[in-house]
Design the sequence.
């Protein structure tokens, strides 16, 4: 018996999952995503919206798994001058 999980190299969020209304460097956010997910910690990752546009770099500082949900705490470290498509 195994544990289903995904390995992610960016953080894609919908507004219903906690995508920030306003992006500001230094802001901390806590979000939840369904399922068990593995993310790199303490390294910059792209923050991507529901349309697959990257807007900022974030660093995930905390990851916990509870009841088949991944809870993340991250900080915004850099805003891009212009959003770009990652898919």
Sequence:
């Amino acid at each position: 018996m195994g544990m289903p999980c995904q390995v992610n190299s960016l953080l894609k969020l919908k507004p219903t999952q906690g995508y920030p209304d306003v992006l500001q460097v230094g802001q901390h956010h806590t979000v939840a995503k369904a399922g068990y997910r593995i993310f790199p910690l303490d390294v910059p990752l792209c923050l991507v919206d529901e349309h697959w546009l990257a807007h900022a770099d974030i660093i995930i500082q905390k990851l916990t798994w509870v009841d088949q949900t991944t809870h993340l705490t991250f900080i915004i470290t850099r805003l891009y001058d212009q959003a770009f498509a990652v898919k």
Notes: The chain has a mean pLDDT of 95. Residues 40-80 form one domain. The beta strands are 6-7, 11-12, 28-34, 37-38, 44-48, 53-66, 69-85.
